[in-house]
Amino acid sequence: MDTLTVTTIVLLGGIALLLAFGVPVAVAMGLPSAFAIVLLLGWEGAALTSAQRVFSGSNSFALLAIPFFILAGGLMTNGGIATRLIDLALVVAGRLPASLAQTTVVANTMFGAVSGASVASAAAVGTVLSPRMKKDGYDPAFSAAVNAAASPAGMLIPPSNTFIVYSLVSGTSIAALFMAGIGPGLLWSAVCFVMVAIYARKHPELRSHVRPSLRQALIVFLRALPALALIVVVIGGILSGFFTATESAVIAVLYALILGLVQRTLPVRDLPKVILEAAKTTSIVMLLIGVSGILAWVLSFSRIPQTISEKLLSFTDNPAIILAIIMVVLLLAGTIMDPTPAILIFTPIFLPVVVSVGVDPIHFGAMMVFNMCLGNISPPIGNNLFVAARVAKVKIEPVIGRLMPFFWALCIGLLIVTYIPELSTWLPTQLGLMP
Asked: Which of 62, 103, 309, 314 is the most exposed place for a label (fewest CB within 10 A)?
């Protein structure tokens, strides 16, 4: 076998093998990538190139948005914003059958839109609503399943750290990706809303929870308005060109900090803990991004994406079939990988393929993130699934059973996002962010 073939086997086989043995993702990406460079350039060249790639992969102004959005999400979670948004969600969904379950969907959508953190959303919403749902006679496993299913909407609705990572790898506009995520994000929430409505028809005992007066509803809305205004500030500033996505992340931190201190919902003594947790999460993400620089260089040098593209196109040049194959691969990968490493690994491989058959990179980004959201609620790795079960204080097995109807319905949503590109491209096109 020639050197490039051996390199491909070492790279892809090594990553798959290490992931199968439960090795941390950064190590599973970095070791095979570094060893592949050794095969291509020798030990000295590999050491120099690997160091350069890690540095250049992390040395990006746009990447500063990630730690700041993570910190902003932490400040919101600890600053009482989640509680006010849940109260507003109760007003919105309080008259519906199974209103607390519908409130879980609405609250996750709103909190995700404010913080962009799906796992934090599942934790915050579940902590508040799970005890209420249990008291009202809901099956605890169903309560956890609704929370797990609804929470990934925050990965799609802007601001979204997942889209920022995809933008870095694909070279696409962050603003366009943010706008492209709104349609799929609302579709995700709508699917969960419909599934809860179907469940409510089979369980009429799950009554409406609250019927607030107009005055009460107005008070709740005014209390939540400062939190909702953050969406307008961040997204409005980006679209108007007043500041970049990175600068908007800094503004989000300042806004959340000032709001928490002014409303006295964020104790000053809690700030070191919030900052430390944000730093830990950031370090994991940045290590993955740095290591992905080595992987990207090997893929480019050995022409693995081009080879995969040629193989796929020799099998079929039908865009629908190619997208179906890629979505299945990503769906399987999402069950064993977190969204960030999956995007870092698979975007350089599959993006050239879909572009060659006429798929827009922005549309592909929306498809990919929607797919990764499904991975976030899938065993054995799905973070949102485990967090939702933990805060509801139930075992994971019954939650998985209750979650499966949501999962299959959301798979239909994935087909809609994949084969109706206008759902993700219409808004950024209308706003002049893409042709």
From this structure: 314
